[in-house]
Write a structure and sequence with these properties.
Length: 916
RNA sequence: GGGCGGAUAGCUCAAUUGGGAGAGCGCUGCCCUUACAAGGCAGAGGUCACAGGUUCGAUCCCUGUUCCGCCUACCA
């Protein structure tokens, strides 16, 4: 039998493509609801359909794939449900930009044509990220890939909408919402990002109508909104202003007068001047204050956040100057007018939070409009409950309070969006019932549904309204928030509202792996919707991983140019190296700072593994004899025992979602135990390929390496498959082979202790080499002495091994006699004494080396002595600590003595030479 | 403004019940030793942010300070 030979360095490229294709062809990732194993399921956090893979995705999906591959190998009935979401605003923006470049617009195309365009863009680019996930090795069940706008998922959306409406949890109404004047749509509260900005705090004089010589000073950061003011508020208990409540002031730059009201909620007496202007149509607080005082709402901004001053009685010169200007341009002009006309008292720099659209970073405006809202409190309560009582575990637990805090203070969710790409709201309005035809928006012809129009909510378009009017039904032009459909993802992807076998087998899912940034957007909403519509949590565990940053800790962004492109990394270093890096750095609760050097380090690791496999293949030719572990050679028994520990550690750490510790355990085991120690120890046994020793060793080599590949497979799927295939194995692919489990017959404390003795001995030999300046390559003669029976017999037993490992010629093992002798430099530690000849060494340097070591030791001894000399310490420290310290002192003193001895040995050695 | 987390080797991070701080990468020196120079061996490098407190003893617990993140919020 001949074994295949491998190239000298691992080249991941072909390996990856080849194996991924074969896995797919063999259907290894396909889930079967009738599979006998205990279900283990996950849904992928759906990436944007038109997006492409960034390093955050890479981390997210690597961790998921590790879990999935691990559980699959454990024999669980595994489903990893993949798919993408339609990313309403983002995708629409992309296509609109394309149209703009072509000199046209969505309005010009019309809704139907525009949607065709988006669909074709989706067809064209929607596969990109899926292809990239495959490159990453993601073992999703691609046959089940879903898209949030698939017919089935769209049906789920309509079903949920209708049922929420029936249950009174969905309503339409005129409210102040966050409006993006660039995307021209409403946003939910959490789609607004707050950013600190330095603006100005303007203090403006509002003159009293009764007595124009007096004025009320009003502080504002947004002077242009004064045109929408309908009152000024002061604190009702503020002595400075109390007498003014009920009086009126003249609104600067207009011919209007507005009342002064008392409002203890809105006004903070300490802030600014203690008087606040109220602009109910353009500020959330003012909106509520306006309700309390029954104030008119005057809109002064249009959809684009341009000033529209008709109806607010602005002075004509002012109106002319700022009409149709965006806020940013209007503000300085207003400031100028106020200054010129003596209204501006002062303006000073002021820090404030600016709300920006999370998609396009445009400053959002509070905007009065008709929108659909989910009444959230009744949904939130059970979703709080399940996290409190642990039915959903959030890992790391630190984020639990974050979740709970947000959920307890949750506000109604604005779900309507004024865009076209998405699930159009299944609500119709009857123009006949309404009495007059609805107005149409001039720009795109969309119907403007009046606030008081009655919505008919249904899964499909009704034939007639409840009054029996046909032909006059108009569907709500708005679409739903993308997160509305994402919230249903864990069950809509499984076929809901149909009761499918998949739904039965795989819901609730086992684990959700996601980033903190969508805890509220997505996780919270899935829990609410899952509980509401499935009556059960959508997942048991939520593992929240960190954000990926660059080596400086900066958030990666294209504009900063610090983006690490995972595709580029995979090209350069291989997918396995990238995956392993991400896993190794995924410490909980900490951001991942990714530097390319780290990836390179793990690329080296793949090469190390590769070359270890090469070594195996070079020596695996020939018969293999399988002995019971206890009868195998010392190196074999040792590596089996260590492998057992590695399996146990990796499994345990994966159970805790400690990807970092699991990967580090594998790394340590493979590199330092398997490669550095085991392979080295095994070489002598393989010298004669036909020996009994060689036959048994080959068996252990093959067996342990094969096991090791299975242990590593979830982390590095490609290289492990490639190597596994070349090793003696059963089956067609490592993907579905069992994950290693511990075997008690592999474990041997005795062998490990024996090994530790050898290591102790080798450490002393190395130290001697270092002192004497002998390189590892120089063959030396050593005397060793095992101070205990165990040590002595271990050295006797492993004489050849020590000779081989330490490049020793003719090792002498003395039994219980002092091996100090002329020309010998001796060193000792717990159970071992080692000596070698000083002949031919640079004794000056040796002396230096010893002296340095001694200085360090003497310091330590002094400290330990001092501690033990402290009566309080001796009286109060626990006995084991005391013993520990006394042992240490003894050890250190002994060591000094020995170094002292070594020093005199060296000195003695020097003398005759100096004499001669 | 509120909340949470962090500050440990040049860099990135570990260290569970307080008893002489470790790893990877990088760096330095020596080695192309037949699996691997993408490697081997050896080594340097730390007032565990600062100031107090508790304790025989603190990187660890408590208090305060500084700095850095993140989340959250309608102080005009």
């Amino acid at each position: 039998m001949s074994t295949p030979q491998l190239d000298k360095t691992y080249s991941p490229h072909d390996v990856e493509n080849r194996w991924y294709q074969r896995w797919i062809d063999a259907g290894l990732f396909h889930a079967d609801p009738t599979h006998a194993g205990q279900p283990y399921s996950m849904v992928i956090p759906p990436p944007n359909v038109t997006g492409s893979l960034h390093v955050g995705h890479a981390l997210n999906n690597t961790l998921q794939d590790i879990l999935i591959r691990w559980r699959r190998m454990q024999g669980r009935n595994v489903l990893w449900m993949p798919g993408t979401d339609h990313a309403g605003i983002a995708t629409q923006n992309v296509v609109e930009r394309q149209l703009q470049a072509e000199g046209t617009s969505r309005e010009a195309l019309g809704r139907e044509e525009f949607l065709k365009r988006v669909w074709s863009w989706k067809e064209q680019s929607g596969g990109t990220i899926i292809g990239q996930l495959k490159k990453l090795g993601a073992s999703c069940d691609w046959e089940r890939e879903r898209f949030t706008m698939d017919p089935g998922l769209s049906e789920a959306v309509r079903e949920v909408f209708v049922r929420l409406h029936q249950d009174g949890l969905l309503y339409r109404g005129e409210r102040l919402i966050n409006w993006c004047p660039r995307c021209l749509t409403a946003l939910s509260d959490i789609e607004v990002e707050h950013e600190e900005a330095t603006g100005k705090l303007y203090t403006i004089r509002y003159h009293l109508v009764d007595d124009p010589t007096q004025c009320l000073l009003v502080a504002t950061t947004r002077p242009e909104t004064l045109f929408g003011d309908t009152a000024v508020a002061v604190h009702p208990e503020d002595e400075r202003f109390r007498h003014l409540i009920g009086k009126h002031v003249r609104l600067p730059l207009t011919s209007r007068t507005i009342p002064i009201v008392g409002d203890s909620i809105l006004v903070d007496r300490e802030f600014g001047t203690g008087a606040v202007k109220i602009t109910p149509a353009h500020d959330f607080n003012d909106f509520e204050a306006g309700e309390r005082h029954e104030l008119k709402r005057i809109k002064i901004l249009d959809l684009h956040a341009h000033l529209r001053l008709a109806g607010c009685l602005a002075d004509s010169a002012v109106a002319e100057a700022v009409e149709n200007l965006p806020v940013a341009k209007a503000r300085p002009k207003i400031e100028q007018f106020l200054t010129d006309q003596g209204f501006l008292d002062k303006s000073e720099p002021h820090k404030m939070a600016l709300g920006k659209c999370y998609r396009c970073k445009t400053v959002v405006e509070p905007f009065l409009s008709d929108q659909w809202f989910v009444k959230i409190k009744p949904l939130a309560e059970p979703a709080i409950q399940v996290v409190e009582d642990g039915r959903v575990r959030i890992i790391p637990e630190a984020w639990k309070n974050n979740y709970l805090g947000w959920m307890r203070d949750i506000k109604d969710w604005c779900v309507s969006r004024q865009i076209w790409w998405g699930h159009q709201i299944p609500a119709w309005y009857c123009e006949t019932c309404h009495g007059t035809p609805f107005l149409r928006r001039s720009s795109d012809g969309a119907p403007l549904i009046p606030s008081d129009a009655v919505a008919i909510v249904a899964k499909t378009q009704p034939d007639a309204c409840p009054q029996g009017h046909r032909d006059a039904l108009v569907q709500d032009p708005d679409v739903l928030d993308t997160w509305f459909s994402s919230a249903l993802w864990p069950f809509s992807t499984l076929g809901w509202p149909k009761q499918t076998p998949e739904l039965k087998a795989f819901y609730p899912t086992s684990t959700l792996v996601t980033g903190l940034d969508i805890l509220f957007f997505w996780v919270a909403r899935m829990i609410m919707m899952g509980l509401k519509f499935m009556g059960e949590v959508p997942f048991r565990d939520v593992y929240i991983h960190a954000l990926v940053r660059d080596a400086e800790g900066q958030k990666m962004s294209k504009s900063k140019g610090n983006v690490i492109d995972p595709l580029h990394v995979m090209e350069q270093y291989g997918t396995d190296a990238l995956r392993f890096t991400l896993a190794a750095m995924a410490s909980p609760g900490r951001d991942v700072k990714l530097a390319e050097e780290r990836i390179e380090g793990y690329r080296n690791f793949t090469n190390k593994i590769w070359n270890a496999a090469r070594f195996l293949l070079m020596h695996l030719n020939g018969e293999r004899a399988e002995l019971p572990p206890a009868q195998r050679s010392f190196p074999d028994r040792w590596i089996l025992s260590r492998l057992n520990t590695a399996i146990s550690t990796v499994t345990h750490e994966l159970e805790q979602y400690r990807f970092d510790r699991a990967s580090s355990a594998i790394y340590q085991f493979i590199w330092y135990e398997y490669c550095d120690k085991y392979i080295e120890m095994v070489k002598p046994a393989l010298k004669d390929p036909n020996s009994e020793q060689a036959k048994s060793t080959r068996q252990t080599l093959a067996e342990t390496f094969e096991t090791m590949m299975r242990l590593l497979h979830p982390f590095m799927p490609f290289i492990t498959e490639e190597i596994w295939q070349t090793l003696p194995h059963d089956g067609t692919s490592i993907v579905r082979k069992p994950f290693p489990t511990t075997k008690t017959e592999w474990e041997s404390q005795e062998v490990e202790q024996e090994f530790a003795l050898l290591e102790e001995c080798r450490a002393l030999m190395n130290q001697e080499r270092a002192i004497l300046g002998h390189t590892a390559g120089k063959r030396l003669h050593f005397n060793i002495h095992g101070k205990t029976d165990v040590a002595h017999s271990a050295f006797i037993k492993h004489k050849a091994l020590i000779e081989y490992m330490e490049n020793v010629e003719n090792l002498s093992i003395s039994g219980g006699v002092d091996i100090a002798a002329p020309h010998l430099l001796t060193l000792t530690s717990g159970s071992t004494e080692v000596g070698t000849s000083m002949e031919g060494a640079d004794l000056h340097k040796a002396k230096d080396n010893v002296t340095k070591q001694m200085a360090v030791l003497q310091k330590e001894v002094a400290r330990t002595r001092q501690k033990l000399g402290n009566p309080d310490f001796v009286a109060k420290a626990p006995p084991e600590v005391l013993t520990d310290h006394r042992d240490r002192l003894a050890r250190e003193s002994r060591m000094i003595e020995l170094l002292q001895q070594a020093l005199s040995q060296i000195t003695l050695e020097q003398t005759p030479h100096q004499a001669s």
